[in-house]
From TrEMBL:
Domain annotation GerMN: ranges: 44-132
Domain of life: Bacteria
Keyword Signal belongs to the record: yes
The protein, known as: GerMN domain-containing protein
Organism whose genome encodes this protein: Saccharopolyspora shandongensis
Name of a matching Pfam family: Germane
Amino acid sequence: MIRSRAVLVAVASLVAALAGCGVQPTDVLGAGEPATGLPQGMRVYFASDSGLRGVARPGVEINDLQVAIKLLLGGPNETELHSGLSTLLRDDQKLHATSDRGQVTVELPDTPVETSPGIFTGQVVCTLARAESLLHGTRPDEVQVTLVGPNRTVGPYRCPQFLTG
């Protein structure tokens, strides 16, 4: 009898606790249409512990690829630095980019290019792919970027090759 009474008290306490948690039932709430497509506006890609990370540069008008290169060479802002972002490009790095509707060529006259692409290449490829998409309407994930250094030409690369998770 004592055992069944203890079980009954425990069950009653559990029911009371669950019923009194303060969460009220609600109807289904409309949240509008789901997000689709790619984010709008200019993004610059920097290095992080987990790979490349794109950050927005709202209000920046891209009228040629050199604007994007200047943003990239400017590096992360103070807040981005504190959140662990960095750049593998030097602020005096020489880069010149040209494009032909989704095909970008980047000349790096003073920088030997890597045969196996890493974060440096990813920063350049993804930033210029975004800029090219804003200039000519090509999807940034379809833009192809070729790097021409003093030692070799590599690519073409697409930004998704450098993005993890």
